[in-house]
């Protein structure tokens, strides 16, 4: 169940960063993730975990950006491996809360 609006700056920053980094890679600004990680002064593993946020269901991303995610949803929950199927992401991130 999605609660009343509650901005979580850590979640929002991570989602925005993920999409910005993805755009930087797709545009060719950086040749690969290792080059981008070095430029952004983060390790490759962290960059890869953050980039996976671009694969989260659009309505979950919208809920995060509008502050309507479950109050129990934390950044650590998003950084764990998630199913590729959006309906299963809902079960893992939204419905079980």
N-to-C span: 7 Å
Q: Number of DSSP strands?
A: 0
Which runs of at least 5 residues are low in confidence (pLDDT < 50)? none
Helix-and-strand structural type: mainly alpha
Tally of alpha and pi helices: 6
The chain-level mean pLDDT equals 91
Global Rg: 14 Å
Which series of helices and strands comes N to C? HHHHHH
The share of residues in helices is 55-70%
Task: Describe the main β-sheet briefly.
Answer: none
**Strand portion:** under 5%
Shape: elongated
Task: Explain how this protein is built.
With 97 residues, the protein is mainly α. 59% of the residues lie in helices and 0% in strands. It is built from six helices and no strands. The mean pLDDT is 91.
Tags for this entry?
97 residues; mainly alpha; 6 helices; 59% helix
Give the SSE map.
Blueprint: H1 9-26, H2 33-40, H3 44-51, H4 58-65, H5 75-79, H6 86-95
Helix pairs in contact: 2-3
């Amino acid at each position: 169940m999605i609660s009343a609006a509650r901005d979580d700056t850590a979640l929002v920053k991570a989602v925005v960063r993920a999409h910005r980094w993805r755009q930087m890679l797709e545009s060719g600004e950086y040749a690969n993730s290792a080059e981008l990680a070095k430029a952004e002064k983060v390790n490759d593993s962290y960059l890869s975990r953050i980039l996976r946020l671009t694969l989260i269901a659009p309505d979950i991303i919208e809920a995060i950006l509008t502050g309507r995610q479950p109050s129990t949803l934390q950044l650590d929950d998003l950084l764990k491996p998630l199913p590729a199927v959006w309906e299963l992401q809902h079960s893992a991130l939204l419905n079980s809360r």
